[in-house]
Amino acid sequence: MEIRLNGESRCINAAHLTVAGLLEMEQVPSPEMVAVQIDGEIVHRCAYNDTMVGDRNQVDLLYFMAGG
Amino acid sequence: MLMNLTDEQMDRYSRHLILKEVGPEGQIKLLQSRVLVVGTGGLGSPVSLYLAAAGVGTIGLVDADTVDISNLQRQIIHTTADIDRPKVESAAVKLKAINPEIKIEPWLLYLDASNSLDIIRQYDFVIDGTDNFATKFLINDACVLAGVPYSHGGILRFDGQTMTVLPRKSACYRCCFHEPPPAKSVPSCSQAGILGAVAGMLGTIQAAEALKFITGAGSLLTDSLLSFDAKTMNFRRVKLRKRPDCPVCGENPSIIELSDSEREACGLK
Ligand SMILES: [Zn+2]
Questions:
Q1: What is the C-alpha to C-alpha distance for residues B149 and A29, in angstroms, rounded to an integer?
Q2: Which residues in chain A are closer than 8 Å to B41, comparing Cβ atoms?
Q3: What are the residue boundaries of the structural domains of chain B, listed by start?
């Protein structure tokens, strides 16, 4: 399937992919440090294992930034 | 508006006055405005310098910290001679030197659940220039509860992010980030590092948003998160939505008063 990840087109070599799986694939060092938005909806942090990423989804990984 | 610009003000603010989006009316609005800058560090430095130069009439500065030599790489309002001096005091001197006609209100304290609503309510716009999630979430909640618009800012390494929040009208920080991440997974600038100029890049965006809000110029960075990576100079703006189930600005909010639990959850204090 093909998704748009952070605004860029990305081919995924899998029929089924969870948000947790995508974060692992993207080597996000700590899933707790990112908010995930799919097609404009924020996925709750505790639902990463149960939420599927689908074909043509727009996925945004929004990183927490604490510094100032 | 019963206020006229003096000859000196006409000169000082001449480059604002010739902007049709600002003009004399916008400049008078700036002179009559009150902006609170929380944190007088990497973001607070450029923000408060530009607000003072722009003629924001009253600038509140919140910080309980003193200047450390490791701050000077990016906190450009402080100088080597200011080491060990309270940051709000050091900053106030520089801001008055740039623009003697503005008023500085120093708050030598950290915002917490007991004081933040009282302080934030006294201002028209708030700048989040803090360096920890506990205070970032506290500012969001206090601004939503008090109905005071604010600019969120966060920086780390080569990255920055910002959004402007018009409480109950546009998405808030919690609409996107919901709750602070667990303390153990949180890198701060002191642990992860920060390129000094990145603080300037982000802080000047926040200052521009404050000036736009006060003068009514342009459109604000609402319902979106602007982030950039200074390594590639890629900027990206992601659309956000105000969430009906947001814990603070949603239809059935669970946060109806402030508490310091977030602070404890993040292992501070
Ligand atoms: Zn919200």
A1: 33
A2: 68
A3: 15-265
Domains and CATH numbers, chain A: 2-63 (3.10.20.30)
CA of residue A37 relative to chain centroid, distance: 7
* Contact at CB, A66 and B175, closer than 8 angstroms: no
Residue-level pLDDT, tens digit, chain B, 269 residues: 568 999 999 999 999 999 999 999 999 999 999 999 999 999 999 999 999 999 999 999 999 999 999 999 999 999 999 999 999 999 999 999 999 999 999 999 999 999 999 999 999 999 999 999 999 999 999 999 999 999 999 999 999 999 999 999 999 999 999 999 887 777 777 788 999 999 999 999 999 999 999 999 999 999 999 999 999 999 999 999 999 999 999 999 999 999 886 544 433 43
Going edge to edge, which strands form the sheet with B125-128?
B103-107, B58-62, B34-38, B125-128, B150-156, B159-165, B224-229, B234-239
- pTM value is 0.95
- Chain B partners within 8 Å of A62 (Cβ): 161, 176-177, 225, 227, 238
In DSSP terms, B229 is beta-bridged to: B159, B234
Residue ranges with CB less than 5 Å from ion ligand 1: B 172, 174-175, 246, 249
CB of A60 less than 8 A from some CB of B: yes
Say if domain B15-265 classifies as CATH 3.40.50.720: yes
Give the whole-angstrom CA distance, residue B93 versus residue B54. 16
For residue A58, the chain B residue with the least C-alpha distance is B238
Distance from the alpha carbon of residue B165 to the mean position of ligand 1, in angstroms? 9
Which chain B residues are within 8 Å of A41, Cβ to Cβ? Answer: 241
Contact across the interface for B159 and A63, Cβ inside 8 Å: yes
